[in-house]
Amino acid sequence: MGLLTEGSPLSWAETKSQAEHVRQHGVIQFINLYKRLRDRQGDILKWGDEVEYIIVKFDHEKKIAKLSLRSHEILAILNEKELADPQGVKSLWRPEYGGYMIEGTPGKPYGGLLAHFNIVEANMKYRREEVTQLLQPGEVILSMTNFPRLGCEDFTDPVTKPTPDEGATRSFFFPDDAIFPHPRFKNLSRNIRERRGEKVCINLPVYRDVNTEIPVDDSYLRSKAAKPDRVYLDAMGFGMGCCCLQLTFQACNIREARTLYDQLTPLCPIMLALTAASPIYRGFLTDVDCRWNIISGSVDCRTEEERGLKPLKENKFVINKSRYDSIDSYLSESGEKYNDVPLVYDKAIYEKLRANDIDHLLAQHIAHLFIRDTVSLFSERINQDDEHDTDHFENIQSTNWQTMRFKPPPPNSTIGWRVEFRPCEAQITDFENAAIVCFVVLLTRVILSYQLNFIIPISKVDENMQNAQKRGANLNQTFWFRKDITTQISPPEANECCKKGYANCCDAFEPMTINQIINGKVGEFPGLIPLINNYLSGMDVDTDTHCTIQQYLKFIQHRASGEILTTASWLRKFVTSHPEYKQDSKVTERINYDLLSTIHKIQKGEVSCPELLGHTTTSKTKESIPTALYKESLRLERE
Ligand code: GLU
Ligand code: MG
Nearest C-alpha to atom 3 of ligand 1 is from which residue? Predict the structure, then answer.
């Protein structure tokens, strides 16, 4: 989830007093790096996936599943391995917010060769196996978006207790001791709470079954912030303790990175709905299928003034979103006229960037990110060499957790301009995660080769983001989507009304179901999978890779059409058909145990689950790709 710095974290008061310093120097650092790297050309298309996992500990006798707080021990061993052979390791491991979480990526990025799609799943399996070897009896690693009983009594192993009256989080439910032990994470939690002026607060609609009791529990007696008919969550850990599946792409230059950033933006809500995997929070079935708004609320450091609840006095801006949310403006020329939501940005920073020859769109993007204060600062890092360091820039950049992230090359490295694709939820099996990764990567190829245009007004993307999280959205909701994605130039009437700042009248886009978007609408919309297949038909690919890709695409197709369930729907179904379920929305210890043991078996392939996976076979590839092939792949197929 970002930069890990060694050293001593500052208190919130100290951090606050340095906020302007970090902002000013962060901007200078960006200007310097931009000057150095704006014309960087010829990087090749590379990409990689990131999967976040949880470590679960089963007590098979008592039939209980808890979160094991051993990720720091496991990570220490994995990082030692990396240190001993940085070039040779097949995987890289990083900490995440939860003391029970761990994040894994392939050791090297993948390149432009289609054969790489055949090793994604093998690498994911390798990663799982690698961690599994370090686990203790009863422990398993799961790629599950949210642990269903996170925040319920004694949900960790060893048992930890919440400390509502002291510490970083002050949650009624989420103990500080469940946070990963690196000081950054606790520090972030405390600073976000102190900056906001109160604990974070999320009130989720409970899924109302026939016996669901309202109030759902006694939270509303303990806190004014809790609503009786809602599942109340009051800690950063409820959000940042969730897992996701992310992708990073390296573009050949800054221009291509800006295009990818914009073109992938309207796909974020679509992929969120398609990968929905988290309907259960703090032991309750809820009416949402995704983690997104929960994380957003869990790091919402805006003060009352910034949230528009009080007139501005101490703060500079009323800000309409949390620092974790969907993006607020496009970066490419084709996106410019679709920036229809007034952007909140720091005018002085904007002017400074403009004065340094940074164009309007990029300047407003950076000036928008920099409306935020630093929420984590280490004393050793205050004074920096702005010519070469980028820590202050990264400080703000890496705590703007948006659906897409536009990333400049790191200092002194061979890495180019990149974008991150961040909406997807983690899926249970490596097969599913690999399928989603390959689908999105193939989409980027199709977008760039066919110069497709998916851009719709930002306000419509925002609307789609909200719809994507509703229960059953994958099948039941519609999403604004561009009707003609093959036009480079949008119809003139669309241009006119979008220029005026409202887009409702545009007929360039219309509501579509996920099925129509993915599989097409006869005579009207081609569908993303048919487009990908069309693209692939012109490519040379070995039979094995071809079969793997087709399995993945079939899976995406079936998930979009509803032939197979989303993870969220499957989880709901498992809970509601469990013999112990009392139609009261509650996910008990025993249901949780049975659910997680079943998930573990599905993931290992010990039980088949056609409802979730269809009738697919997983990729058989075990070996990593031969070096010669790897080198060849580093040439772009587009070249
Ligand atoms: N776990 C967060 C999520 O589910 C992402 C944290 C990160 O940026 O790595 O979106
Ligand atoms: Mg992460």
Answer: 244
Task: Tally Cβ neighbours within 10 Å of residue 313.
Answer: 7
For the chain, give me the number of helices (H) and strands (E)? 25, 17
Strand partners for 233: 202
Tokens found for residue 521:
């609408």
Q: Are the beta carbons of 235 and 200 closer than 8 angstroms?
A: yes
Name residues whose C-beta falls within 8 Å of residue 521's C-beta, 6 or more positions apart in sequence.
512, 527
Segments making up each domain of the chain, as ranges = 1-478+511-639
What confidence score (pLDDT) does residue 615 get?
81
Amino acid at 527: G
Residue whose CA lies nearest to ligand 1 atom number 5: 1
Atom of ligand 1 nearest to the CA of 398: 8
Atom of ligand 1 nearest to the CA of 292: 10
12 phi and psi angles, rounded to 5 deg: -65, -40
What is the distance between the alpha carbons of residues 602 and 203, in angstroms, rounded to a whole number? 32
Q: Which positions ≥6 away from 194 have C-beta within 8 Å?
A: 12
The CB of 52 under 6 Å from ligand 1? The reply is: yes
State the pLDDT at residue 145.
98
* pLDDT tens by residue, 47-68: 999 999 999 999 999 999 999 9
Q: How far apart are CA 65 and CA 138, in angstroms?
A: 9
What's the N-to-C CA distance of the chain in angstroms? 34
Q: Coil, helix or strand for 614?
A: coil
Q: Is the CB of 267 under 6 A from ligand 1?
A: no
| Dist. CA 119–CA 117, nearest whole Å | 6
The rounded distance, in Å, linking the Cα atoms of 574 and 583 is 12
For ligand 1, the distance from its centroid to the CA atom of residue 564, given in whole angstroms, is 26
Give the gyration radius of the chain's Cα atoms: 24
Decide: 188 in ligand 1 pocket, CB within 6 A. Answer: no
Q: Does any ligand 1 atom lie closer than 6 A to the CB of residue 325?
A: no
Atom of ligand 1 nearest to the CA of 244: 4
Quote the pLDDT of residue 487.
60
* Ligand 1 proximity of 328 Cβ (cutoff 6 Å): no
Residue by residue, DSSP assigns 332-366 as SHHHHTT--SPPP--HHHHHHHHHTT--HHHHHHH
The confidence score (pLDDT) of residue 350 equals 98
Of 117, 195, 27, whose CA–CA distance to 440 is shortest?
117
| Closest C-alpha to 119, from 633, 535, 533 | 633
Task: Give the β-pairing of 64-68 and 156-157.
Answer: parallel
Weakly modelled stretches of the chain, pLDDT under 50: 489-505, 623-639
Sequence-distant (≥ 6) Cβ neighbours of residue 109 within 8 angstroms? 46, 47, 48, 248, 250
Model pTM? Answer: 0.94
What pLDDT shows up at residue 639? Answer: 27
- Candidates 320, 402, 326, 333; CA nearest to 362 is 333
Note the pLDDT of residue 411.
86
Which of 3, 52, 150, 291 has most ligand 1 atoms within 8 Å of its beta carbon, as the pocket-test mutant?
A: 52
Q: Could you write out the three-class secondary structure of 20-33? A: HHHHHHHHHHHHHH
Q: Which atom of ligand 1 is nearest to the CA of 291?
A: 4
Neighbours of 97 (CB within 10 A): 28
> With contact defined as beta carbons under 8 Å apart, do 330 and 265 qualify?
yes
1 Cβ inside 6 Å of ligand 1 = yes
Q: What is the C-alpha separation between 304 and 312, in angstroms, rounded?
A: 9
* pLDDT at residue 2, as a whole number: 64
Q: Look at the domain 1-478+511-639 and name its fold.
A: Creatine Kinase; Chain A, domain 2 (3.30.590)
